[in-house]
Fold these 2 entries.
Entry 1:
Amino acid sequence: MNIISQRGRFCAVCGSAGGPFLDNLCEKCYKKENPLEMKKVDSLKVEICSTCGSLRILGAHTDTQNREEGLEEVIREVARRAILENIDLDSTFQYDFTDNIEESKIMNYGVKEFEINTRIVTKPYEEFSEFEEEFRTRLKMLRSICDDCSKYKSGYFEAILQVRGDNRKLTEKEEEEIEQQIENKMKQYEDARLAYILDFEVDQDGITAQVSTKFLAETLAREIKNFTSGKLTTAYEHKTTSKDGAEVYTNTYLVKLPEFAKGDIVEYERILWVVKNVSDALIKMESLETHEIKKIDRKRVESQASRRNNEIIEREYMLVSVEGQTVIIMAMDNYENIDDNLERVPRNKGVGENIKGFLIEEKNYYIE
Ligand SMILES: [Zn+2]
Ligand SMILES: [Zn+2]
């Protein structure tokens, strides 16, 4: 500012001759007449869900569980952001905060309010030095139950997940594996909103679960389908009219596991096989007559083969001797010696080794 140009001027309000001037006012009077235009948030409601600990400030949710900072730091950060977002000042500004938020007092009913002090420093006019302004924001602490938790408590769910076998029950191994798979997937969604399973049942029919959202149910269903080479179908059903009058539709995601499962004993083309693996298009089976492994069209096997699991009597054997293509096998339950062909014995077996197998229609079969 050029000193000479200021000469002979004085403030229109206080008469001071000390420049600089703007609109014929000295700095002090100008600042008084033109306070900074900004929005000072004077209070903020901080709702804390007493069930999950999530925060709601100005209608926006903040999950707290998956954050590394403590609740104190999260409240501070979210409140500061809300204050800054509202300031709406034309000039750029610097800020700092002080507050009295204390972790140990947050969940204490006795303390219902904290305070944040905000100091703003800005320089909107070239001519004048910086403006400085402070204001106080009250944080009103409220305990509430967030929407997710109240939905969970009221038993809200949008979808049913079903896992069934095609014309059969699930095997114990399948039940265990699928349960494990669901558990693993749910761990990935631990911190997601509205992700829960209300009711998980394993019974004769298979697996049935009430799942919070359609998205989650479909994600789980697809995962199981891919893992088992099953088929996924979705059914939409009209459920009920909820308390607030809205119609709630429940989707059912049904995964049907393949008709034949790994380990099944099936009869196909008049011999017995053990199922090794089932993919979308093929079934891999091992012949119990020759122990040759074949991949066969799945649809073909499903339409022509029959399951024999329920008719077999499990039995243990020992390979006693091999001579050319002839073997002697001993049944371990009654020490009966059986003459058989070498190709009917699993290929990796040596003399003296035990073999697991079964008896069906008075004929012995050797699996492994
Ligand atoms: Zn003045
Ligand atoms: Zn909650």
Entry 2:
Amino acid sequence: MDEVLEQLKDGVRRFQAEVYPQRAEMFEQIANEQQRPQTLFISCADSRVNPNEITSSGPGDVFVTRNIGNMVPAYGEMLGGVSAVIEFAVSSLGVKHIVVCGHSDCGAMKALLQPESVAKMPTVTSWLKNAHAALTVAETLHERDIENRSDRPLLEVLTEQNVLLQMQHLKTHPSVAGAMAVSELTISGWIYDIGKGRVLVAEDGERSFTPIEPLKATADEAPLRV
Ligand SMILES: [Zn+2]
């Protein structure tokens, strides 16, 4: 018996028994409508990153593409899955916002710092070239202690610089450039801290990341003072 497949089937059974019945009406409704997601979310394929969970979104809300290191090859570099997703999301679905989301403890970022760890994986090695400029920028900022970057682990600086680089690459795609030119599309870069549940955001044009402020407790939710 294939244990992993059985675990997956159990998961489907739980979905069918517990999740679907509670929201059957919504599922039936969206099944008969054209999808209209407002956001394209580009994240790492890392199994610990769950775009729907961290944005509290559900079916139909977010168009998602994931790959190793949340990368966006510059237009023309590698015409493939990522470029096609971007073009479709912007030109056909008309998404209003694109997020490039990096995360803590990213294996792709670690591999950039230790290329020998992926030496036997030629496809991965080639894919990581999409972030080489970020590696140079991160190393330079870290070495020269620009904006106190040397106080922080190089991995953290690289993770941020990779997101900023991929945002630049995004703008080389004609569909993105066109929609941004007429203010129909905005983009942002995110860093998701898996262990802390924290999300930092750099809006377009910003060079540093700012934490999203927590929900403020309303009067009803405020703790009782006795
Ligand atoms: Zn990753």
